[in-house]
Amino acid sequence: MAPEATTAVAVPRPPLVGRLRSLLTLGIVAAVVVVSFRQTDFDLLALFTGAADFWKFFGRLVPPLSEVGTDWGKYLPQLAKPLIETLQIAYVGTFFGTLLAMPLIFLASATTALDPVSMWVARVLLTILRSIPDLLWAAILVPILVVGPLPGAVALSLFSIGVLAKLGSETVEAIDPGPVEALRAAGAGRLATIIYAVVPQVAATMVSYILYVFEINVRASVIIGYVGAGGIGFTLQNRLNFFDYTGVGLIIVVIFAVVLVIDGLSVWARSRLI
Amino acid sequence: MSRAATAYQVPPTPPHVRRGRVLAISLAVLSVVLLVVVLATMDLPTWQRVKAGLDRTMPPLWRGFTNPDPEVFPLAFRSMLQTLFMAVLGTLLGGLLAFGLSFLAARNLLGGTLQAGPGKALLVAIRTFPEILLAIIFVAAAGPGPTAGIMAMGIHSIGFLGKIFSDVIEGIDQGPMEAIRASGGNGLHVFLYAVVPQVLPEFASNVLYRFEINLRAATILGLVGAGGIGGPLIQRLQFRRWDEISMFLIVIVGFIVVVDFLSSTIRRRLV
After folding, report:
1. Distance from chain centroid for Cα A270
2. What is A75-273's CATH topology?
3. How many CA atoms lie within 13 Å of A253's alpha carbon, on the beta-carbon side?
4. Fold held by B65-270
5. At A135, is the secondary structure helix, strand, or coil?
6. pTM
7. Which of A92, A139, A230 comes nearest B237 by C-beta?
8. For a designed S-S bond to B148, which of A177, A195, B200, B226 qualifies (C-beta 3.0 to 4.6 A apart)?
């Protein structure tokens, strides 16, 4: 009785090829991780040995509890101007990013492209725009355009074009081809086809994407001041240079609150759209 | 003749379409009005100042961008490779921490929406906190270097990965879990043989996707002193060495395009 039961529940082993492939994958990942540790001098132990210093630093970001009200209350109004500038940069960046992305969406989408050459030129351009992160665009543009909100707004526009046109052209490629074919068969031109067959199908999704890009831009605009492109990031860098840690602490709290509120509003609006 | 003209008459626009059009047009008008107000109140430089700046910077910039300096290629390549390794470790750190946290944010494992609430709220908070701000804090607290950048990426990645992971866990099929429990398996067996095989492909695919995002993020961490290619790049930006900057940009874009391609190819095979 007993030996029979044990043989009955013997677990079948997975096939050899599958096991070898998992082992190989695991080996490659492990090798990459080991090389990464060596090449970056990443000190995992420092997380624990340096933890005390770390908490001390966090302690300095907050004024003593009895003075939080007076210290932060006094400084908060000074942050209004850079904060408004931050949101202005995000808005201008999103507006012009959206405007310039519109023609590129249709050029880069296989459904509406003029010809293969211009389609690929548009796609390569979009890839370059997206591969350079927004903060890097800002850092490149600050020496070209005058220090301040202008390079920030231009940087966010460029990055937004890349993101929005990529998302948009993919949406256009996924639409129902029926209306497009119907209009073409009835002799409609390219522009009429786009306006009456493509736009109604993608409009809601596009508005949702624009809001999403605005979220990205708010996140970026709070920080681009760090490289001289205007907004509250500039104030943050200034306070850090003066070792005004309670000021830094307040700015961190304000940035977090602004991003949280904008994100929340945008997510709510997007959930109502689709 | 006149019969043909009436036959082609366009039917009247349905009311819901007209409402949509009115809404779209009023939104567009509103956003343009807001733009005018914003531009009028923004602290923008005068056109003369912008033009003077452009006249000064454009000729050397054009020269530099049309002649990328091949001599900085090895440096740019090495820095980008370090950036890549930072992204690997940041993603690994984030993945491991998110793996643990995701079980605390999964409704089906905790027994209800209420129990998973704190975990979900924590993930939203982490996701919202800008990554580069974390990097600035870590640099100020622990000094400049890749460790600060890796920690910033690792912590920020928890927000995204933890959310995806807990969504995946919430969507698993209960059948295999019940089957293993019914045949006498304990909690560990259920986890190893019913949960892990179901979630592993999705987890791996999203970790790879996060790795793509982190590689982009890692290129700018150096701008705030948190290691990687951004460090040498920001120095060159300060000295306006456009020939070297253009070579750095070529290396960055090249790396990102190649890694994106490889990663998305693997992801397609995973899921």
Report:
1. 16
2. MetI-like fold (1.10.3720)
3. 16
4. MetI-like fold (1.10.3720)
5. helix
6. 0.86
7. A139
8. B226
